[in-house]
Amino acid sequence: MLVEFIAVTAEDAKLIEKSGADRIELVSGLTEGGLTPSYGLIEKVVASVNIPVNVMVRPHAQSFCYSEYDIEIMKNDINVIRSLGANGVVLGVLDNQGNVDFKQLEELLSEVGTMDVTFHRAIDNTNNIVEAAGKLDPYKEIKTILTSGGHGDWQFRIETLKQMKERCKETDILIGSGLTKHNIRAVHEQVGTGFYHLGTAIREDNNPLKRVSLKKAADIIHTLK
Prior knowledge:
Blueprint: E1 2-7, H1 10-19, E2 23-26, H2 39-48, E3 53-56, H3 68-83, E4 88-91, H4 102-109, E5 116-119, H5 129-136, E6 142-147, H6 154-167, E7 172-176, H7 184-190, E8 195-198, H8 214-224
Parallel strand pairs: 1-2, 1-8, 2-3, 3-4, 4-5, 5-6, 6-7, 7-8
């Protein structure tokens, strides 16, 4: 079982650690789906907690398609993130046809060294999520795929998540988006990946612009563990 919560501040990170979560995803721009945080924030969070910190590498929220300039920026960010002692990076790249851009992906993976990689919810915008997951599975650097099982109602997504879990032999399926204290146990019982990711659901008033609620975060951990 691994439970990951999103932090956008050092205070968030401390509360997440105190809640009993296993890992932090550190981002800025939570309302935009997460962007690369500042180097100062990364350094402070890594130094302030004892649980792993995975850092978002996403230079803008325009799309998951990136120019050559974007890729150079992302490679530089990965190198700095590695030098600051983070556990891993969170990234995803698509082409204009709605497929994973494996050429760009391999460029980015060449910079990660020994860090873990999560391929993020860009996969939910691919033409065939299950097929995309299967093609990502052989990449040894990619430890987890963060996904909501696509878009639409939960029951449809549950079936997609089951197929992704079955397809991926080496990569863990990290379920995120739409999870709450009230449905996470049912999702766990139906899919059972054991890897869960929450952001807004652990914040005061479920507001992405407010701070982490220790009670909400701890309740999620208690519900699962």
